[in-house]
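Re-running DYTN protein to confirm reproducibility after the cluster update. Everything else is unchanged from the original entry.
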Amino acid sequence: VQQISGMLVKLFQRARLEKPGQVNPRAAEFTLSLLAAMYDRSGTGYIKTRSAAAALIALSGDTLLAKYRAFFQFYAVPDGKAALITRSALRSLLTDLNQIPAIVGESCTLSCVEIATHSCFHGVLNSAIVEEKFLSWLRSEPAVLLWLPTCYRLSATEMVSHQARCR
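Result of re-run:
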């Protein structure tokens, strides 16, 4: 938790320099509190860095494709020239990401994660998949992660304004 706290402080200091007046001075504290509520419910003082990274990626303002690629990079294992994501790594990613809606009472059961993992690996004979297969599956908007593209679309439309007048 202390290491993540230090990283968050640096991250938000940099963000404050880039966007003066737009970053809450307590953003690092609030974010750490959220991460602890999601990934350290028993108060051990330990949060997996990869879990925290997945949450920060999911909650970032980046594009969906950039988020999906980042998920792959964090959870994939090197295999010669390529990186692959295994079934267990996908389960881990989905479990980590499902802590986000769970914090607001929208939890998913373990069977949801298993069903999603099975659907991603449907028709795959190998024990792992390449990035393109992973991205293709995510673009199909699996039910277990439907909240992610929905939140992205909502945030993307927040700044849209139409020059129309109503009578």
